[in-house]
Amino acid sequence: MSEPEQPKIIVDDDWKSAARAEKEKLASKEAAKKAEGGDDGAPGLPENVSFDDLLRLMATQALMYMGAFPDPQTGKAMVALDLAKVHIDMLGVLEDKTKGNLTDTESKALLGILNELRLQYVEISKAVAQAAAEGRLSPEQAQGMTQGQGQTQGQPPPMV
Fold first, then answer.
1. What is the pLDDT of residues 80-137, one digit of tens each?
2. In the chain, what are the domain boundaries?
3. How far apart are CA 160 and CA 23, in angstroms?
4. Of 74, 39, 77, 63, whose CA–CA distance to 116 is shortest?
5. How many angstroms separate the CA atoms of 156 and 65, rounded?
């Protein structure tokens, strides 16, 4: 008699190589996305935040409270000068605390933003006071603009 035939075990290594190739393909796609700056988790957001981004954020907040941008909910400009002053003052603190640690470009940008915001703040404060004196604003409205209650108006105060 002949020996019983042993079952043949066939090992399919093809799936391993296919999985390895797919993994490499995904890794190369991910590397390409990172090189382009794309990120599925936060589209449109920068991966690294710069000093200029911080300045823009704080300046935008100050401008918003000086009526430069409409309130997204009402569509009307909001003037809350005390809140604008807080943001301008924070930029002033940033200037003091970073003296000697900024590049010339960063220092000039901070100083320029601060000067412009301070000038606009003074001009808007004068415009609010004048509008109250002329009777275009009630004393309560004018006080609300300077004490954070925020006054919405159809038009923002004049910007310089």
1. 899 999 999 999 999 999 999 999 999 999 999 999 999 999 999 998 888 888 887 7
2. 13-48, 51-153
3. 58
4. 63
5. 10
Q: How far apart are CA 145 and CA 53, in angstroms?
A: 28
Q: What is the pTM of this model?
A: 0.61
Cβ-contact 55, 91 below 8 angstroms? yes
Distance, in Å, from the CA atom of 109 to the CA atom of 114, rounded to the nearest integer, reads: 9
Q: How far is CA 11 from the centre of its chain?
A: 56
DSSP state letters, 69-138: EE-TTTSSEEE-HHHHHHHHHHHHHHHHHTTTTS-HHHHHHHHHHHHHHHHHHHHHHHHHHHHHHTTSS-
State the DSSP H helix or E strand holding residue 32, giving kind and residue range, or none if neither.
Answer: helix 14-36
Rounded-to-integer distance, Cα 76 and Cα 69, Å? 8
